[in-house]
Amino acid sequence: QVQLVESGGGSVQAGGSLRLSCAASGDIYSSKFMGWFRQAPGKEREGVAVIYTGGSSTYYADSVKGRFTISQDNAKNTVILQMNSLKPEDTAMYYCAAGGSWVRPFRPDDYTYWGQGTQVTVSS
What are the backbone dihedrals phi and psi of residue 62, each rounded to the nearest 5 degrees, phi first? Predict the structure, then answer.
């Protein structure tokens, strides 16, 4: 069993930065990936960035490449999402997740464990 707790959301103006943290407890290494998904009102949940728990391989959505960076602190069982140059279209509820597969790292259905979510709001 894995439990995920997110923190770090908030409200910023366009161009600003936020740092999201996901603290995991339990056997996270039974999951191939940990990462972040987001869901805006009326839209489907989409992958933002994920990282392979056994190494450093990362995947990013095209819309966030060059602006967001995902990293992990294995000693603390924590995954960090540094978000820079934020845009209004980044506004969403952001969820930490653990699970995934190499075939489709951004497929939400392949993720077994989910956090409660943290809201990110970017104003123009």
Answer: -55, -35
Residue from 45, 40, 26, 18 nearest 109 by CA:
45
Phi, psi of 116 (to 5 degrees): -80, -20
pLDDT computed for residue 47 by the predictor? 97
Bridge-based pairing state of the strands 118-123 and 10-13: parallel
Q: What is the pLDDT of residue 5?
A: 95
pLDDT for residue 26 is more than 90? no
Tally DSSP H helices, then E strands, for the chain: 0, 11
Q: Which amino acid is at 86?
A: L
Binning pLDDT at 50, 70 and 90, where does residue 30 land?
confident
Give 53-59's long-range contacts (Cβ < 8 A, gap of 24+). 53/28, 53/29, 53/98, 54/29, 59/35, 59/105, 59/106
